[in-house]
Amino acid sequence: MKPSFHTLDTRASGLRFGAVIGVVIGAVLLALVGSPATAGDWRHFRGTDQTAVFRPGEDIPPVRSLDQLAWKSELPGRGPSSPIVTAGRVLVTSAIDPDQEELRLSCLEAETGKTQWEVRFWATGSRVCHAFGGVAASTPSSDGRVVVVQYSSNDLACFDLDGRPRWFRGLGLERPFLRNDVGMASSPRIVGDVVVVQAESLLDSVVMGLSLRDGRTLWQIDRPKEAMWSSPVVIPAGENAVPGSEAGPWVLLQSREDFALIDPKTGRKVTAYPHWCDTVPTAAVWGSQVALPAAGIHLLDFDAAKLTLDARWVSDRVRVSNSSPLLCRNRLYAVKPPNILVYADAGDGKLLGQMRLSGSFWASPVIVGQTLYIPSYEGTLHVVALDADGVPRQREEVELEPQILASPAVDDTGLYLRTRSYIWKFAFGSDVIDSK
């Protein structure tokens, strides 16, 4: 069956020139309450729960060679955004050269890599960005029923999982100074029936809560006018949460002023850790622990009863540059410049060891079972075996295509990687579908 193609005409004069902005494109036919996360889903940047950890400690056969390539599918355009996986679909954004005005959302069948459908529309905001990155920089977000996409042009759109448009917002038209000369990259995050959007630059800076149903603004917060490329992260309420309206979940936001905890329903700042944050890597969460990148790592404890964020330890020996840190159980992993994997005790920050890798790193690592996967920009997938205590013991390499900026995605059947031109799926087991 041939894939279907949909066009959302954002070039219409009303949308382009601001007469009609944030219009609902189609009636919402689904009850948008969000379906429960299935075990095999990877719905947001760094996973459904945003830990970047999938089935920790389980005996999942690692990817060791190109022989495990299940499929490789060419993308219609480029971009550093990561794929997500939900309901047997791989969803990924791209922008079409030469000027990246045409934006795409592609849906691939997770089992075969065949394109099920594509949506194309046109940027209404600034497309100025560094040639190293691209307009399709933000990772989509899904609740299992719909998908929300954001681009460096600050165009946002919502589609159902068959590619039918639900709503569109041209934030670049609404706020023309919401732009910077290297592009925007923060990823949206669906939290219940709210889409949290972080868009921060030197001339204008805002965090907004949009209705998942129709794209209307529910709340907005003016933020420090500084460039920020990190993404909102959700932290669960935890076992000691106070029942009622203060039960969470909560959203964590980095800025050059502080590290804020907000209520996604109202945008209210609940508390903040009073320290400026790094601008590119995103904080890692494991339970009530938060690893904040800020010229090193600040390990914070979130108390859901007191609604506080307090530092347990701070270390500049464990730090990151562009890729995000990762917490798993009582271990912290980070790739520090130039190319060294460091791992530490999350309890006290004690450095436990390090391992030299090859290449430079923009993609963030993921853990699958007992294996740590770290893609380099040069196209090497570093496969690091972890022992029962989470200590790296052995490293292997799989050579792919260069220019990897996107972080991996995972489901029950395999590992998904975006390179310059393709989405690659590697099977965890021996059931290889098609090697191209």
List the helices and strands and how they pair.
Elements: E1 4-7, H1 13-16, E2 53-54, E3 69-74, E4 84-86, E5 89-96, E6 102-109, E7 115-122, E8 141-142, E9 146-150, E10 155-160, E11 165-170, H2 171-174, E12 189-191, E13 194-200, E14 205-211, E15 217-222, E16 233-235, E17 250-254, E18 259-262, E19 269-273, E20 284-286, E21 289-293, E22 297-303, E23 308-315, E24 326-328, E25 331-336, E26 340-345, E27 351-356, E28 366-368, E29 371-375, E30 380-386, E31 392-399, E32 409-410, E33 414-418, E34 422-427
Parallel strand pairs: 1-7, 2-28
Antiparallel strand pairs: 3-34, 4-5, 5-6, 6-7, 8-9, 9-10, 10-11, 12-13, 13-14, 14-15, 16-17, 17-18, 18-19, 20-21, 21-22, 22-23, 24-25, 25-26, 26-27, 28-29, 29-30, 30-31, 32-33, 33-34
Tell me the number of helical segments per DSSP (H or I, 4 or more residues long). 2
Mean pLDDT: 90
Second rung of CATH, namely the architecture: 7 Propeller
Give the radius of gyration: 20 Å
The CATH superfamily name is: YVTN repeat-like/Quinoprotein amine dehydrogenase
Query: How would you sum up the major sheet?
Result: 5 strands, mixed
Give the overall shape. Answer: globular
User: What is the name of the CATH class?
Assistant: Mainly Beta
Fold-level CATH name: Methylamine Dehydrogenase, Chain H
Structural class: mainly beta
Report the end-to-end length measured between terminal Cα atoms.
20 Å
Low-pLDDT residue spans: 13-37, 431-436
